[in-house]
Amino acid sequence: MAGEGRPQLKQLLPLALSANTIALMWLVGNRRVLGWWLAVGGQVGWFAFIVIFQVWGLIPMAVALTVTYVRNLVKWRREQRQPCTGVAAMWCPNHGDCLCREPEFERSDPECPLHSVWSTHAEEAGR
């Protein structure tokens, strides 16, 4: 039978994962994004537990929670972004420093995270 000979693991793994769940819920309750990182990381442990001990009935819950945790992590990270500085800025909290070679004259360096044609800085600064 799966998991036989591993009684300590069968007891310790769920205890560790439960402690992780309690900690992550505390952090999420305090609006800390670290809680969602712990949630996503903890799912690896739950999937390992399911496979090692063949507890297949937990798969739907583990999949649903993984999807929810990843969704919430992405959503929270988006919401935590600070507003971009103005279009003519030399620095932005989201995009970093201006890398234009001659920023006084022309701000369009293709490597610049603020002023290149690929940058989303101008669009976000206008919001």
Structural class of the secondary elements? mainly alpha
Strand content: under 5%
Query: Could you say how many structural domains there are in total?
Result: 2
Mean pLDDT: 84
Query: What is the terminal-to-terminal distance?
Result: 59 Å
List the total number of helices. Answer: 4
Please give the number of β-strands: 2
Description:
The chain is mainly alpha-helical and 127 residues long. It contains 4 helices and 2 strands. A two-stranded antiparallel ribbon has the order 1-2. β1 and β2 form a beta hairpin. α1 packs antiparallel against α2 (34-52) and α2 (34-52) packs antiparallel against α3. The longest helix is centred in the N-terminal third of the chain and has 23 residues, at 7-29. The radius of gyration is 23 Å and the shape is elongated. It starts with 6 loop residues before the first helix and ends with a helix. The model has no long low-confidence stretch (mean pLDDT 84).
